Amino acid sequence: MSASRPRRVAVLVLDGAKPLDVGIPAQVFTTRASMPYEVRVCGAAPGPVTGGDGLSYHVAHGLAALAWADLVFLPGYRLPDRDTPPPAVLAALVAARERGARLAAISTGAFALAATGLLDGRRATTHWHYTRALAERYPRVRVDPNVLFVDEGGVLTSAGAASGIDLCLHILRGDLGVAAANHAARRLVAAPYRSGGQAQYVPRSVPEPLGERFAATREWALHRLGEPLGLDVLARHAAVSPRTFSRRFAEDTGHTPMQWVLRARVDRARELLERSGRGVEQIAAEVGLGTGANLRLHFQRVLGTSPSEYRRTFAGGE
Question: For residue range 230-239, what is the model confidence (pLDDT) as tens digits?
Fold first, then answer.
């Protein structure tokens, strides 16, 4: 790329494209004196594209924009676990990457990127609601459900729509430096960096049960999180042996009983941090995690943030 010309950015609008996901890169990389970029919004062909959320688009450019671009954004789109972009779109994305363009997916745009095969063997993320579907549909992709974005060099992915801002600012820092990225963040009234990953935004970290075996035991345990809940205790309530309970519980939930209990305790701690003024030590004791240090440790492991940061984000400060 010549230093004398602006960096070229293409935003690829697919059927069902989500408005925020389209608008974020188009606005972040808007052409201005402080931003040496040129943006083209494109589709599989020039003309109208049916979008999501009741909106539609009229794009001026077709797939030739991908051959022109240095950086291609794939905004998220509706029904990504059912719909695959047309072969011509996938071929154009592969060709763009082969000649050196970076490909950056926002939210469910990761499904389109995965369909090219360019994420095979690589780490990637998408919106938390779709991480399991992405892993199941593209098993060769190493899906990380907890992070805000992943940079694998020439291919980048991000979580939900707001994480598209995090990804764009990350790209700006690499292209133009920290000062330029901070300037853009101020213009967007956005945080230059966000603490933690997307796990803290999932409504509950305890997975939905896949079966009804031991549902009564799970419900019973949720009301006794402050008490000892070892494998023997849970199995006794379910009236089966610990070995049988452990095996069948994992089949139902995808987690071992102790993993499930830990996540349930972290979820209860989240609720108390959001809705009460209790201190970390008091909350840790109430949810069965013992000490504040233990609560902080598991909060970081499960949610990628600290209890204090979580409270500042979701409860407006302590």
Answer: 999 999 999 9
In the block, residue with structure tokens 């071992």: 256
Cβ atoms of residues 175 and 182 within 8 Å = no
User: For residue 235, what are the CA distances in angstroms to 58, 214, 223, 250, 288?
Assistant: 59, 9, 16, 13, 19
Other CB atoms within 10 A of residue 88 CB: 12
d(CA 227, CA 207): 21
| Span 76-100, pLDDT tens digits | 999 998 889 999 999 999 999 999 9
Q: What are the phi and psi torsion angles at 61 (to 5°)? A: -125, 150
SS3 66: helix
The sign of the torsion formed by the CA atoms of 231, 236, 242, 247 equals: negative
Domains, the chain: 7-201 (3.40.50.880), 215-315 (1.10.10.60)
Say which residues have a Cβ less than 8 Å from residue 74's Cβ, sequence separation at least 6. Answer: 12, 14, 93, 103, 104, 105, 106, 109, 110, 112, 113
Evaluated on CA atoms 199, 204, 207, 208, the torsion sign reads negative
209: exposed, middle or buried (C-beta count within 10 Å: 0-12, 13-18, 19+)?
A: middle
| CA neighbor of 78 nearest in space, from 109, 48, 47 | 109
| Phi and psi at residue 273, to the nearest 5° | -65, -35
The token pair at 186 is 């101020």
What would the DSSP string read from start to end of 31-45?
A: -BTTB-EEEEEE-SS
Maximum alpha-carbon separation in the chain: 74
3-state secondary structure of 113: helix
Euclidean distance between CA atoms 140 and 77, whole angstroms: 22
Residue 222 to residues 72, 97, 210, 227: CA-CA distances in angstroms?
46, 49, 17, 10
Q: How much is the average pLDDT of 241-251?
A: 90
